[in-house]
Amino acid sequence: MAAAVVRRSLTLGPAAESWHARRTVAEKNAAWTSQPDTFLLAWAEGVLRDALRRSPLLDARSYEIFGQGSRVNNTYIEQASDIDLVLMVKMPFESNVDALDEPSMDNFRESYQVGPYSWEEFREDVMAALGESYLVRMGRRCVNVDAPNSIFGAMVDILVATEYRLYSAFPSPGVEVYEQGVFFRDREGRRIVNFPKQHRRNGDQKDLCTGGRFKEAVRTAKRARRLAERERMIAEGAAPSYLLECLLYNVPDIVYRTSSPGDAYRGALEWLRRSHREDPMFFAELPCQNGINRLFGESPDQWEACEAGGIVDVLHEIRSPRPVVAA
């Protein structure tokens, strides 16, 4: 007896239809939702570049200026949020060549020589160059411009960095494979390596794959954190935005594909809470949003997994604030 062939017409349920509609809207609106930030970033970069050009100190240096942080990642919750700029010198660069074999190391040594220009020297040149136009001071990590009557001074933080290259291959001179990051030191002189471009790229991709729910959840978590600090449920500064964003980035896309922002946010917190409680070893190995660094550890840009789990518990206790859509 021949088996019956059953043909089923697959249709999307209400939640899936809602998510697919949101993804379409997110794709169509991606340009105009970021226009104000694009303008502000371009303006700030232009002001910084003009100030540097007024001084001859950096004329011989190749450098790049680009944005990072909540404004460029579109996760800010206040129009007056800082504009975070990276000022990165291109040569000489810091590198990690641990993954290269000996022939690749020969190609590396043939292509580059260790330069005498350090990050500290670049920072001092930047401070001196900007000092010809503004009153500047070095903060914990960034250069701050003290100009009370200037929007640039009030809003812009400048991270002075050296290019960092995490090599994976160098098959021949002129052919090299690496991840580009930034290297700098904090006020205590500790080395910090981060990958802001990968952070932004991965966040944008996840937001697209979740129909905009991911960044909505990040903004909502920031509002909840503010409430938790005000109610003294957590210490001020204990839950930095970078940590919250990286935690929420690790939540699987499917968790965010719900019919409402509130459900997506609560589901993300529940996933993180369950992961920390039921599989602490898995939780402790979560990566940063850049996909390269580990989120937890002992370096200056890492946190304690138990402390992060406690922050998730506090956010979970708070009644979900009104979800925040893109500005």
UniProtKB/TrEMBL annotation:
InterPro entries membership: CD_NTase_C
Location of the cGAS/DncV-like nucleotidyltransferase C-terminal helical domain: 201-316
Entry keywords, A to Z: Antiviral defense, Nucleotide-binding, Nucleotidyltransferase, Transferase
Superkingdom field: Bacteria
Pfam families to which the protein is assigned, alphabetical: CD_NTase_C (PF26305)
Protein name (database record): cGAS/DncV-like nucleotidyltransferase C-terminal helical domain-containing protein
Organism annotation: Amycolatopsis alba DSM 44262
